[in-house]
Amino acid sequence: MRYKSTRGGIAPISFKEAVIMGLATDGGLLLPETLPRAGEEAVARWRAAAGAGSLRFQDLSFDILSLFADDIPVKDLRELVERSYATFTHPEVTPVVKKGDLHILELFHGPTLAFKDVALQFLGNVFEYLLKESGGRMNILGATSGDTGSAAIYGVRGKKRINIFILHPHKRVSPIQELQMTTVCDPNVFNIAVRGTFDDGQAIVKAIFNDIAFKDKHQLGAVNSINWARILAQVVYYVYAWLKVEAGGPVDFSVPTGNFGDIFAGYVAKNLLGEERIRHLILATNENDLLTRFVQHGDYSLGTVVATRSPSMDIQVASNFERYLFYLYNGDAGRVGAVMADFGRDGRIGFDQGEQARIRADFMACSVSEAETIDTIRRFHEETGYLLDPHTAVGVRAAAEHREKAVPVVCLATAHPAKFGAAVKEAIGREPELPPVFADLALRPSRCQVLEAKVEAVKHFLTSHAL
Fold first, then answer.
1. DSSP string spanning 385-400?
2. Is 116 a residue of the active site?
3. What is the mean pLDDT of residues 409-436?
């Protein structure tokens, strides 16, 4: 399997090279030259294992990753997968539970209790493996709206040959999200709070990666979902959930998203299994409705970031959107590059009627208000006894808007509710019980550097602390 850029400016590269490159050197995002389709023999084997109760997430992950990462020896890839998911507390890694008339795909059983762990435990181990192989070093740079930061930090803390620098918006993440990052004081971990929004932090990271000389000098690596390995690891749990739920027909997925990464993984999974198996991808946003406007009206235009109770989705520039744009434009890399340049200048992309029809064939969408989010947490708890975090509640509400009773719906539960205790308390009158891993967070030593949301300020800090 070889990889290319959405902007067409690089020669095809291997999976290993794609992981290390992160953002393509032409400013685009990396994609496989072709999206593979799972063979019917493999699907039959997976279904038989699921039916017998012997389907292991790790085995399915190995099978799917093998399609995309064929330059890693089989033995090594299997060991990487096993080591990555040994850190999860549930034996199924990403279990599916039935609550009411919905299926909940629990993605919060990793070390930071968020879905990002599924990808970042794997990516951290792959980075360490590749750097040991090459004798190289890496300074990871990323921006987070909440959960990516802690998951990335836990994925590489203490690993040799790696330093990690994570930007988060100062006082715009939940208190537990902030503590999960800033209380990791390993010598190779650097937390940076920027005075601005997540979009400001993301723009800084992209600007630094686009400074090729600076990137090469400091051997920068990416953990944000611009790194293809992040998307790839997330594809697995869509297939796993389909195997757990399917009853001879298609399954729909409702996905709370702000950066388009998680739902793009669903798009890849749909291509892998076929639309007769994964039917609709329901894109759920909070009041930061950029992606909903894109699906419903063909309006991809910048708005003002609104602070909500689901802060990981408080985004107005979706960094993974360019990958879907490449397919929407039928692989026309020149057009992708030109449109993204126009977007950088004008803050808007328009779509004609034919393109809008294709978009709505791929996705359904729903924007959920703050009041609806809290109401959904309360109602779902009253009806099922199950507690949703506010991001998952956005997905559950969107599922209710678009669900067809004859088709099972899987809602992605992206975080443990204890990470957002204030929103839960508003909904049900009490905060959720803290898992043991959170019990002493506020008492631990912490370390964080507050900086202005400026490229040069971050560059200076990185230069001073890079390997």
1. S----HHHHHHHHHHH
2. yes
3. 94
